[in-house]
Write a structure and sequence with these properties.
Length: 126
């Protein structure tokens, strides 16, 4: 962020808030289940908790915006045809199968299986 933008955000009032990724960091208090807090701390250590939570909020905001765009598009153009939904699901399954094959081949060649988690984080498209 450049100096002008930083100063501009610092001078803004609540009626003119900063953009989503602008402005100084602020401390907030949130309540979460103890188990979730422990899981985040186990992944981030003592200094990465805020960055982890901030990234999670950013992803949720992106998902919310995508959902809003999809709803707006559906209101204008009608629902997505089932055949397109089926095609998208098939494409995800094919991509998932390719990853499974590549990971299996990598492990067979002696590559460390932990590298899979660095790229995919153990998540699978559903």
């Amino acid at each position: 962020m450049d100096y002008y933008l930083l100063c501009h955000c610092l001078l803004m009032t609540e009626s003119q808030p900063c953009g989503i990724d602008e402005g100084p960091a602020q401390k907030v208090s949130v309540s979460m289940p103890a188990g979730r807090i422990a899981a985040v701390r186990a992944r981030t250590g003592t200094r990465g908790f805020s960055a982890y939570v901030s990234a999670a909020v950013e992803r949720q905001l992106q998902r919310d915006l995508i959902e809003e765009l999809l709803q707006e598009h559906e209101a204008q153009a009608g629902p997505i045809p089932q055949e397109m939904l089926d095609h998208a699901a098939q494409a995800f399954r094919a991509a998932e199968a390719l990853v499974d094959l590549e990971c299996g081949a990598s492990r067979a060649e002696g590559e460390d299986a932990s590298t899979e988690g660095e790229t995919w984080r153990g998540r699978r498209a559903r």
